[in-house]
Design brief:
With 456 residues, this protein is α+β, with helices and mostly antiparallel strands. Helix content is 32%, strand content 16%. A six-stranded mixed sheet has the order 6-2-1-7-17-16, covered by helices on one side. Strands 10-11-12-13-9-14 form a six-stranded antiparallel sheet. Helix 1 runs parallel beside helix 11. The longest helix is centred in the C-terminal third of the chain and has 24 residues. The radius of gyration is 22 Å and the shape is globular.
Length: 456
């Protein structure tokens, strides 16, 4: 191996880590096993491929922890966020992207960078100290041999849960005499944003029949020794249905904030939403419909949804193993493996959940590794930032015995003083984001933004 930072894994975290290191003048070798070694979830050999949703979730940087993380990554010249902005599509207040052009652009930027060498190979063992600094960002689909090597070094079994993928529908196969376009509560600044979602209404009888079919459908069977330990933020739809017949009506199929354009006087009992999946608007993914149903069962059950009776699927849903380490036990505050400090971990394998969170940990790991190579010492990441809150959680803030994957949320932040009630909650969120922005700007050495007046 050459005198460079070696990054294993070219997903969100690995791509962001590579970019951040090169912006500090440090060369990187990015090892990506695809397309030579395929996975269940990936379709291409591109870097930063989005395998599940095409959404980076809320883009509200004043009242939402995910939106705040977007802001922190943008002002840090984050590759993932700037590329997402360039290929964004309407999503009613969320940041969603045209997934293929997005990953193609990330791939193009990194492959053309003079300090980046992309090597298409599978790494099957932990590199030694003689190989120099290493960042492992292999994500939830870490190859078997490398996963075994990590588990052996950790002295414990890898933790794991199962992650599910939602199906994608061709837009021209949706019956628009039944469905209509509207974002929940008409959210969005433009008409395109306010009509970013495709809505399919159900009456009570249709909903009950759908639940019956969902519960009775054939499911993917787990292999010997596998246990179904799901992440609550990405539950298969049938697992949600098993928790109670009304669960979906209060989750991804809730009918609130929507008015049927065809029958405004009728209140839907449940609504299935589809979100645009590409810029052309030819593909839509079914929001919240991750599934472990077998393919044949999926087409039968999902075509029971009004407006999808003749749906054609560009991709059916699926389920895959998602591996992560017990970071609070294994990593130090610099994201280094305590037993082998030349190795850092980044991304979902550290126990953060979501595209944005994964990329954010890649951003920090890339900067930390580059600073170490340059003989510099970065100040501690401020705990009051979204980056710092996540970092603190995975490197000691979480209880190791019950450690589970976590999205960024204000519950990870040090408390702020604010009055109770709904208005008090908005004030509290604004206090969190104002404090975080000032601390992050100071850490980056850039001017702090002027706090915006809270919205009524």
């Amino acid at each position: 191996m050459t005198k460079a930072i070696h990054i294993i894994g070219g997903g969100m975290a690995g791509s962001e880590a590579a970019w951040q290191a090169t912006q500090m003048g440090v060369p990187v070798v990015l090892h990506e096993m695809r397309p030579k070694v395929e996975t269940f979830a990936h379709r291409t050999g591109n870097l930063a491929e989005m395998v599940c949703s095409n959404s980076f979730r809320s883009d509200d940087d004043e009242n939402n922890a995910v939106g705040l993380l977007h802001w922190e990554m943008r002002v840090a010249d984050g590759l993932i966020m700037t590329t997402a902005d360039a290929y964004s599509i309407p999503a009613g207040g969320a940041l969603a992207v045209d997934r293929d052009p997005f990953s193609e652009a990330v791939t193009r930027k990194l492959r053309s960078h003079p300090l980046v060498t992309v090597v298409e190979q599978e790494i099957t063992a932990l590199p030694g100290p003689e190989d120099g600094p290493v960042i492992i960002a292999t994500g939830p689909l870490t190859g078997g041999a490398l996963a075994d090597a990590i588990a052996a070094e950790a002295g414990q079994d890898s933790l794991a849960f199962f992650d599910a993928i939602a199906p994608i529908v061709y837009a021209d196969s949706v019956d628009m005499d039944v469905a209509w376009m509207q974002s929940r509560y008409d959210k969005g600044e433009t008409e395109e944003e306010r009509t970013a979602y495709l809505n399919c209404p159900m009456n009570k009888a249709q909903y009950e029949a759908f639940i019956d079919a969902l519960l009775a459908a054939e499911k993917r069977e787990f292999k010997d020794g596998e246990t179904a330990k799901y992440f609550d933020g990405c539950l298969p739809i049938e697992v949600m249905a098993e928790r109670g017949r009304e669960t979906l009506r209060h989750g991804p199929m809730k009918p609130v904030g929507l008015t049927n354009r065809h029958k405004p006087e009728e209140k839907a009992y449940a609504v299935v939403q589809l979100r645009r999946d590409n810029a052309l608007g030819t593909l839509f993914n079914i929001v919240g419909f991750q599934t472990k149903m077998k393919y044949g069962a999926q087409t039968e059950v999902f075509r029971m949804i009004p407006a999808l009776e003749n749906a054609r699927f560009a991709r059916l849903g699926g389920i895959h193993r998602n591996t992560f380490i017990n970071s609070p036990t294994l990593l130090d505050g610099q994201m280094r493996l305590k037993s082998k400090p030349h190795i850092r971990f980044a991304g979902q394998i550290t126990g953060v959940e979501g595209y944005v969170e994964s990329a954010a940990m890649g951003l920090l790991a890339g900067r930390m590794a580059a600073a170490e190579m340059l003989g510099r010492e970065l100040p501690p990441v401020p705990q009051d930032t979204a980056m710092g809150a996540l970092l603190t959680h995975i490197t000691g803030g979480a209880e190791a015995k019950t450690f589970q994957p976590m999205n960024v949320n204000f519950g990870l932040f040090r408390p702020v003083d604010a009055k109770g009630g709904r208005k008090g909650r908005k004030i509290r969120y604004k206090l969190y984001t104002d404090r975080a922005k000032a601390a992050w700007a100071e850490w980056l050495g850039i001017p702090a933004p002027a706090p915006a007046a809270p919205q009524e």
